[in-house]
Amino acid sequence: MRIQVDTHTHTYASGHAYSTISENAFSASLLGLPMFCTTDHASLMPGAPHYWFFSNQRVLPRFLHGVAIIRGCEVNIRNIEGDIDIPPSVDQNLDWVIASFHEPVFSPTNKLVHTQALIKIIESGRVDALGHLGNPNFDFNFKKVIQCAADHNVAIEINNTSLKGGSRIGSIDRCYEIAKTAKELGAFITTGSDAHFCEDIGKFEKVEQLIDAINFPLDKIITHTPKQFLSFLALRGRTPITEFEALVQ
C-alpha cells in the first residue's frame, strides 16, 4: 500500500457518521491498513461531542484489531484570529489535530479573510494539518497559506471525499492546484478518507490518481508509512508514543 495511514476519520460521536471506532478499526484491519487517526468533529459543529470526549481519549487502547490508533480531533476554525473550539488543556491528550472550515461554524466571507484565518491557525502552533482546503466556499491565497504551512511544518490535507465530487462541490480542480502548489513549495501533505462510515476507511482511489497525475514526491506524503507519519509528529514536537516504538525502527 502506497498510503498506509488515514489521518481523517469519523465515528458515530460526530453526530452525522455511522460507525464506532472498533468498527472503523476492524474495517482498517480487513483492508490491511496499519494505522489511522480518529478525528471526530469538535464541539461547535452541530451534533458533535463535548470537549471531554477528546480529553478522555487517553483511555483508548493504542491498537484495535491489530491497527494502530492515533488520538485526534477535527477542530473548527472559529474566527480570523485563529481560534479553535477545543481548550488548550485538551492538547496534551491528543496526538493529531486537523483544523477545517465548516459553514455552520465559520460563515464563508472572502479570500482575504479566509487567508488570514488560515495563517493565524498555522502560526498558533496548535494544529498539525489543514483539512479539505479545496472547498470553493472558502477560497484563499494558495501560495501564502501553503508557504506558511511549509515554514511551520503543518501538513496540507488531500481529502479523498472532496475529490469524489459529491461533497464540497467544485473542490476537484482546486485540490489539484493546491497539491501542485504544495509540491512547488516543498510542503508536506497528508491524506484523509474523511470516512463517515467504516467501509470508507483507508480508501484513497482519488488521492492516488492525484498523486500519480502530478508526481507528488513520496517523502513529502506523511501518510506513506506509519514510520513517516510518526516522524512528522516528532518534527511537530509531539511526544513520542511509547507503544509505537516498533513502528519507527
As a whole number of angstroms, the C-alpha radius of gyration is 16 Å
Identify the CATH homologous superfamily.
Metal-dependent hydrolases
Structural class: alpha/beta
SSE series: EHEHEEEHEHEHHEHH
Instruction: Compute the separation of the termini in Å.
Output: 19 Å
Mean pLDDT comes to: 97
> What spatial form do the alpha-carbon principal axes imply?
globular
Instruction: State the low-pLDDT regions, or none.
Output: none
How would you sum up this structure, described in words?
It is a single chain. With 249 residues, the protein is an alpha/beta fold. It has one domain (5-248): TIM Barrel (Alpha-Beta Barrel), CATH 3.20.20. It has helices at 21-31, 52-55, 111-124, 142-151, 160-164, 171-185, 205-214, 226-235; strands at 5-6, 35-38, 63-64, 67-76, 96-100, 129-130, 155-159, 189-192. Strands 1, 2, 3, 4, 5, 6, 7 and 8 form an 8-stranded mixed β-sheet that branches. Helix 4 (142-151) links the parallel strand 6 (129-130) and strand 7. The longest helix has 15 residues, at 171-185. It is globular and about 45 Å long. Its cofactor is Zn(2+). Zn(2+) 3 binds at residues 74, 102, 132. Zn(2+) 2 binds at residues 16, 41, 196.
